[in-house]
Amino acid sequence: MAAIGVHLGCTSACVAVYKDGRAGVVANDAGDRVTPAVVAYSRNEEVVGLAAKQSRIRNISNTVMKVKQILGRSSDDPQAQKYIAESKCLVIEKNGKLRYEIDTGEETKFVNPEDVARLIFSKMKETAQSALGSDANDVVITVPFDFGEKQKNALGEAAGAAGFNVLRLIHEPSAALLAYGIGQDSPTEKSNILVFKLGGTSLSISVMEVNSGIYRVLSTNTDDNIGGAHFTETLAQYLASEFQRSFKHDVRGNARAMMKLMNSAEVAKHSLSTLGSANCFLDSLYEGQDFDCNVSRARFELLCSPLFNKCIEAIRELLEQSAFTADDINKVVLCGGSSRIPKLQQLIKDLFPDVELLNSVPPDEVIPIGAAIEAGILTGKEKLLVEDSLMIECSAKDILIKGVDESGADRFTVLFPSGTPLPAQRQHTLQAPGSISSVCLELYESEGKNSAKEENKFAQVVLQDLDRKENGLRDILAVLTMKRDGSLHVTCTDQETGKCEAITIEVAS
Amino acid sequence: MLLLPSAADGQGTAITHALISASTLCQVEPVGRWFEAFVKRRNRNASASFQELEDKKELSEESEDEELQLEEFPMLKTLDPKDWKNQDHYAVLGLGHVRYKATQRQIKAARKYFVTSAYEMLSDPVKRRAFNSVDPTFDNSVPSKSEAKENFFEVFSPVFERNSRWSNKKNVPKLGDMNSSFEDVDAFYSFWYNFDSWREFSYLDEEEKEKAECRDERRWIEKQNRATRAQRKKEEMNRIRTLVDNAYSCDPRIKKFKEEEKAKKEAEKKAKAEAKRKEQEAKEKQRQAELEAARLAKEKEEEEVRQQALLAKKEKDIQKKAIKRERQKLRNSCKTWNHFSDNEAERVKMMEEVEKLCDRLELASLQCLNETLTSSTKEVGKAALEKQIEEINEQIRKEKEEAEARMRQASKNAEKSTGGGGNGSKNWSEDDLQLLIKAVNLFPAGTNSRWEVIANYMNIHSSSGVKRTAKDVIGKAKSLQKLDPHQKDDINKKAFDKFKKEHGVVPQAENATPSERFEGPCTDFTPWTTEEQKLLEQALKTYPVNTPERWEKIADTVPGRTKKDCMKRYKELVEMVKAKKAAQEQVMNASRAKK
């Protein structure tokens, strides 16, 4: 069963397909795995992708970029106002909706942002179907965590208009987790994952909790002022100053020259992720003068270090905000094209020294792959999501058990972690010395981290008259079942004798 | 490594206090298979373990039931549950005697004789319908025409009754009997011809959709099944159709209705024919009357004419008599006057003259003369008479002169005509005439010994074999010149007809439409005037052959003529000159040979 996952970002779009149990990104007709989310309007055609992006030097006023930033927003939205101010393509309000005013020479067209998104989606659909060889159009689309209802609807409608059958809209960080299959293999596990997404125009960091294979966003932070474009901009500014130094011309005021420099800087930036140095060469950049400049990776890192610091600072803030330390994070997932930058990866690694940094999947492909996997899970399912199923009951507190370690000090172990979707059942095999004839399981509940106190003890289970065993350990099986209302049922069984004790603890009303 | 502590003495299993906090609602991401599994579980409103437990319980109850039942109905034991498709589910449910008439409640009630597949089959209205459709006890046969010859109603009534169960509409019309009205029968057949059957054949599907492992396979199976179903449905419709057709063709009522209809039509036809005949008769009568009237009118007219003629005749007679009388009177008066002479000869002459008078004079003048003769003296009478005679004689003379002049004119004309065709002995055929015209045109005036050349040309080219001299030719040409131009045109036209006749049919000339050229000046055939001719000749001399753009320049010098016209004219002239030279040479040769 083939299914498609599409990620439409501000600067680029990427499509992955799920086929025969595997998800993979599909290259478009130009051979690129990522398609620039740029649409250029000319007299009688609409160009999507790289061609549109390359032609923007000449056709800037009819080239729509970063459409995602305005999609589903109204004119009084500050984000939209900011976008309108920055956009090179004229945006006007018409009939209460924001539209692009496209002047192709013959007539003036008014284009909805949804139409622009539709064109990009159509392109992605073409790409996917040409790779699949079938007309499968079941799709899962990713949206940023901060997308509102209107924006989601607009995006979904645009995809529908492109001929997609939208199975579900999922959040980008969740897709990233799914791409790495986190929590999917061992469902009883609980872990915290940090998702670092540095896209074309924004940085968004989320802390996710994975419990029983179900993802929860604990906290998230988005900064619209850091992104791949800003790195490029910084590099372009540097190149401009270099040009000024050697030719005594300031090209910063010349939009076309700057656009050329931006294009060149972007290429150089990409090379610097893998190479030590990159060459920028531009024919007749300004008044017929050619420009040739070599940028080393060190130079680039130096230039962008304020931006990198901002990224790291954002992570720190988020951790602080959610009362986590770096040790509480079990994994870090990198996504977004700009997280390829080696320096950035290095900085993150430094921040989480003991944590696995997941970057085996190319960061700009993580999200669509996750979407494709989700699409694969969803295709063929008849009943899709009901709205209220997004809210589910979870256990509020950790259930711990007190034991002693080798040294004889009291130790607590979590038997039933907080945040477990209910109803749930957890089994643990605990061990007791064989020399004792009775075993006591003391159960505590706690919110914090292993900071159980005596008053938090709520029950104890005692197994008595067990067969004594010289040297050796006895296995006690503890089964904890919690219902949706939070009441807990505990069964303890001695594996050798089969002696069993069970209690049910109700919730204080 | 965590080890559980041992229980202190007196410690037992106990609950210190209830859990402080209940479960909390958390928002989760709708992602991943565990989420799907969780939602599915929750939608079924039971935890996985509980569900399992309940399932086990149900299963054991069912098996008990079945055991019980199998003992009660030994027949069921013979049934192979795997072979459920070939089982009679009504029989299994103990509803064999009511079958398709069984209500849903009956079937529900029959559930105590639970047999899983049968119950499932018959409790679901769709599946039940599918099974009903292929009810094995149903007699699909259609009576043939021959069986129904004698007892139509006995044969067909139960068949229609049987098949009416498939109808989507309730209140299926009955076949009825011999006394059913036409409307009823018509309604019956129109219902059956438009029979709307709910019978479907999904039950007979060879492959089960549910067995498919993936959607594609399911689709394929569905497609297969659809095709076979459609085929069966078609057969079923055919069956119904033949049934109705057979019934319709055998139905004595239809025959009856048809005959009635036929009789009715016949009667109508007859009435129509009668009406037509009557109309025709009336028409005939009218025509006769009109004819009669016309005839009468004509007779009357004739009568009138005759009357008039009679009248005219009478008048004429009267006049004649009067004239006779007057003549007699004249003669008598002349006699009384002794013919105004004593001399016998004179008298005879006078008598002659008087006779002449009598012959010629009108009634009025005769009367007048008689008056003068009778009322006046002999001398006056004589004078009057003589005057009359004189006048008459003058008249006669004039008439004679006129006649003579006419005669002379006539003879003159005759002479002229014969004189015109002086060489009438040599008849000129149409061909020769044409040839002559051609020759005359070919050798215009001014040609050296023109007429001889023409004659020679004629002799050479004529097919008539008549030898003509120059004189003949001149005569004929002159007479031809006298003819008006119309005649010439006629001759020319005839020439073309002749040409066609001689050369047989010229096919392309008949039907092929020539490609047209739209060039104005080319079409007018205004003849060349001498002035133009002169100018042309002058121009031809002025611009020798090797002048560049010679014809443009020539055309410029001749006003009103295009380059094309000039070229054409030049070609004609050249041809003419050539022909002339050839003919002259022949004449020269001939004269040389004579010498």
TrEMBL record, chain A:
Keyword field: ATP-binding, Chaperone, Cytoplasm, Nucleotide-binding, Stress response
Alphabetical list of Gene3D superfamilies matching this protein: 3.30.30.30, 3.30.420.40, Actin, Chain A, domain 4, Substrate Binding Domain Of DNAk, Chain A, domain 1
Keyword Chaperone: yes
Chief site of localization: cytoplasm
Protein location: Cytoplasm, Cytosol
Classification via Pfam families: HSP70 (PF00012)
Domain of life: Eukaryota
A molecular function (GO) term: ATP binding
Any one GO CC term of the record: cytosol
Family designation: Belongs to the heat shock protein 70 family.
Quaternary data: Component of ribosome-associated complex (RAC), a heterodimer composed of Hsp70/DnaK-type chaperone HSPA14 and Hsp40/DnaJ-type chaperone DNAJC2.
Protein function: Component of the ribosome-associated complex (RAC), a complex involved in folding or maintaining nascent polypeptides in a folding-competent state. In the RAC complex, binds to the nascent polypeptide chain, while DNAJC2 stimulates its ATPase activity.
Classification via PANTHER family: HEAT SHOCK PROTEIN 70KDA
Name of the protein described by the UniProt record: Heat shock 70 kDa protein 14
Organism: Trichechus manatus latirostris
Automatic annotation (TrEMBL), chain B:
Location in the cell: Cytoplasm, Cytosol
Organism this protein belongs to: Trichechus manatus latirostris
Primary site of residence: cytoplasm
Protein name as it appears in the record: DnaJ homolog subfamily C member 2
Sequence ranges assigned to domain Myb-like in this UniProt record: 527-574
Functional note: Acts both as a chaperone in the cytosol and as a chromatin regulator in the nucleus. When cytosolic, acts as a molecular chaperone: component of the ribosome-associated complex (RAC), a complex involved in folding or maintaining nascent polypeptides in a folding-competent state. In the RAC complex, stimulates the ATPase activity of the ribosome-associated pool of Hsp70-type chaperones HSPA14 that bind to the nascent polypeptide chain.
SMART domains: SANT
GO cellular component: cytosol
Keyword entries, A-Z: Activator, Chaperone, Chromatin regulator, Cytoplasm, Nucleus, Repeat, Transcription, Transcription regulation
